[in-house]
What we know:
The protein is mainly beta. The chain is built from two helices and 14 strands.
Amino acid sequence: MQTSKRRFVAAILMAFVGASAHAADATESKLQPYEAVYTAYKWGDDVGEARIKLEALSNTQYSLTYSSKVSKFFLSDKRYEHSIFKVEDSSVLPIEYHYTRTGTGPDKKLTVNFNTDNGGKIAIENGDEFVWNGQFDNQIYRVDLANQLASGETNLTYDFVNYRGELRTYGVEVVGNENLSLPYGDFDTVKVKLIRDSKTRETFAWFAPSLNYTLVRLQQFKDGEEQGDIKLKSYTSE
């Protein structure tokens, strides 16, 4: 079975989910804990869900978890990400990142540790090391995005370590505003496009200003064909 078929809708669930971690503004360093749940669709069918949870561990340290479980016919995919990070002077700094994947095809896991001191290193569990130069992990670069959108930014660039332990750069470009009807309700949204090297894949995401720029929908295409679509079905915050 080809890898692209094994991934089906699960591959898109990691592209932007978790982006609305209620990033701190210039005068406030605390983040607002929340939980968001999304329904995943493939070819119009409900194939599973994704869940994001942000928790405060202390006044400056946080836990961000992502989980998804999807299945279609004889294919299945379960993923879990866990980030521990801190916020200092409104800057988001990674500490640890953990990733696991099970289901159809090979199981995978990864641990990344960050030393964000001056001259610090990024240590990948396979032995690779990189000089830390402000990179985020695969999730927490998105923590900044909600605040940047709220501030009116329309073009952003993020450097990060992905769930394969590779250094990557993504761009985010605002493409317009749109009203959406979702399982959780109707929302006016800001629509953005993920900019990356791939010429065959397109990823779009919608964020709701009325929910502190929470991600409410994510859709991905490959060679013009929809790979998957997720939509917000519940949201709670403290």
